[in-house]
Amino acid sequence: MRQFSLFTVSLSSLFLLLIPHETPSTVTALYPDLTNTTCKQCAEKSTAFNYDFCTSSLQAIPVSHVTNLQGLALIAMELTLENATNTISNIEKMIGAGEFDPFALGCLKDCLELYGEGVSMLVDSIQVFWWEQYDAANLLLRTVLETAATCEEGFKEKAGEVSPLSVENYDLYQLAAIALCITDLLSPALDSDSS
Question: Is pTM beyond 0.85 here?
Answer without folding.
Answer: no
